Each structure stands twice: as C-alpha cells, then as structure tokens.
TrEMBL record:
The gene is thyX. It comes from Thalassococcus halodurans. Its EC number is 2.1.1.148. This is Flavin-dependent thymidylate synthase. HAMAP family: ThyX. Pfam families: Thy1.
Length: 300
C-alpha cells in the first residue's frame, strides 16, 4: 500500500483543518490538497501547496488589479492566445508543490527536468523502507527492435515468471544486506551514506517537487506523451488530472496546442501546401529523410 494508516490519519487531520485567507484560491485544487493519489505499486502523488489560478495568468499578462476582465470568454481567449504564441512568462506566475513517492530509476529520469526546486528524502540520515517497484506482468516487455529507448512485445510464460522472480529476489537480498550492514547489533555498523549504495534502482524514494506552471506543462508534454516510459508516464497522467482541476482554461489550451497539436518544419509545411494543390508528394521528392518522412506520414 502507498500509505500506512498513520500516514492516512495525518492527511485526514490536515484536510479537516481550514484557514481563512485573502489569497486567491482554486476550488478545483482545494479538493485535492494533501490527498495522496496512488501510482504504481507503492508510489503516490499529492499536492502540498499551490499558488495562483487561471486569473493569475491573465492578471499577470495585463499587469492588472483584481481578477482581470469581467467577461470569462475574454480571459479564456487571452490564455489561449498566450499558449498559442508561446508567451511563457504569465504561466510562470502559478506554482505547484508536490510530494511524490517514486522508484529511484524514475526519479533519475524526472530530475532531468532541471527547472524545479527539489528536496529528496535523505538516505544519509534515514533508513529507506523495504519497498520496491515490481512491474505488473503486462508491463514486462522485451527491448523494441525499432526503438533503442522503447519496449516491444510483452514477455510471457516461463520467461516472465523468471524475470519477476529475479526482480523480487534480488531486491529483497540487497535490502537484507543493507539492513545487516547498518545493524548496530554487536558491530560498528556501516554508515548509512555508504550502505545505501547496495540498494537497487527500483527501491522507492520520496521528494518535494515545486515548479511553476510553464515548466510543469513542459514536463507534462514530454512525460504524459504516449512515447514516454510507462513508469514515469503514469505519474504525469496523475498530475495532469490535478492541473486540469487547478487551471482549467490553461490546461484546455495546453491540451489543444501542445498535447493535441503538432509543429511542422518549413519542409513539411511546403509538402502540405503541395498536397493541397493536388501534387503527388513522395519521400523522394519531399526533401525529407526516411525518418522525417515516416514521422510526417504518421502525423498526417
């Protein structure tokens, strides 16, 4: 389970306490505060704090007082204009702080986004829990034969059982030795900062991750994409739900222009114009490489 009963009780206590404020609040996000949403087998995502809402974006764009215009359509239209024309600064006026529990190998992918403030659980001072990510059988897949970064068909039968057994046994054995090395029973005990190196990359860690909306949407555009690794994509998908409730106008524009939209090179755009005119365009006369042409065809 992602949470112990004590942890859930603490969250329930936090959610039962309310405080008056003059700051702008987003009703959609208020309902999510502190709640832990399960991800993978032991992970979760929960909102610790946030700042701003859709109004904060339009207010910053106009450098105005209050909530912007009285016409909601004008505010939504402005947000769509800002998203469409890649005006990023107004979106930086909103921030989100998350508490995330995730496998170490996912954290190492995640930390590549160097535009957030991060504070991770320290295994120098504390002892990590005996919790490891073990994939569900349907997510055990062979290496893709066409993509060096992707997966192919799912493993099955005895091979799948063997891989799962290795993952469980190796993780448990490593943790057993980790515990033995730091034990204080009739021995000095190895320093925790050294003992942790014996733990596998599927052990769980936790961190606080604070990011502005502009950089958060960039993270989601890459990690909620169908081509992203499953284990990080499920976290991004859960965050998408939170953002949709927090800043609905901004998220809808993001879905339209980033997730659902496409960017064409000048060469590809020229090919589209030629196609509209009725010209037969092939890879050979397109000016594109085979890879570019394959992606262009998939896009169309």
């Amino acid at each position: 389970m992602p949470l112990t009963q004590d942890q859930q009780d603490e969250i329930n206590e936090l959610r039962s306490t309310t405080t008056q404020t003059l700051r702008a609040t987003a009703p959609g996000m208020e309902k999510h505060l502190y709640t832990a949403y399960p991800v993978l087998d032991h992970g979760f995502v929960r909102v610790i704090d946030y700042m701003g809402d859709d109004n904060a974006i339009t207010q910053a764009a106009r450098v105005s007082y209050g909530k912007g215009t009285k016409a909601v359509s004008n505010d939504e239209g402005l947000i769509r204009y800002l998203m469409r024309h890649w005006h990023s600064t107004p979106f930086e006026m909103c921030e989100l702080k998350l508490h995330v529990k995730l496998p170490v190998f996912v954290a190492r992918q995640w930390i590549r986004h160097r535009t957030a403030n991060v504070n991770e659980y320290s295994a120098r001072y504390s002892i990590l829990d005996r919790e490891f990510y073990i994939p569900a059988p349907e997510h055990l897949a062979a290496q893709s034969v066409v993509n060096n970064q992707g997966r192919g068909e799912a493993l099955s039968g005895e091979e799948a059982e063997r891989v799962l057994r290795y993952l469980r046994d190796d993780a448990m054995r490593c943790y057993d030795h980790y515990e033995e090395m730091i034990s204080q029973d009739d021995q000095q005990g190895l320093a925790r900062e050294l003992a942790r190196m014996n733990l596998p990359a599927n052990v769980y860690t936790q961190w606080y991750w604070k990011v502005d909306l502009h950089n958060l949407l960039h993270f989601l555009r890459l990690r909620a994409d169908a081509h992203a690794q499953y284990e990080i994509r499920v976290y991004a998908d859960e965050i998408c739900k939170l953002v949709a409730d927090w800043v609905p106008y901004a998220y809808k524009a993001f879905e339209d222009y980033r997730m659902g939209g496409a960017t064409l090179s000048s060469t590809a755009l020229d090919c589209v114009r030629r196609m509209i005119k009725g010209e037969e365009v092939t890879q050979e006369n397109s000016g594109m490489s085979k890879g570019e042409w394959r992606e262009f065809q998939a896009l169309l």
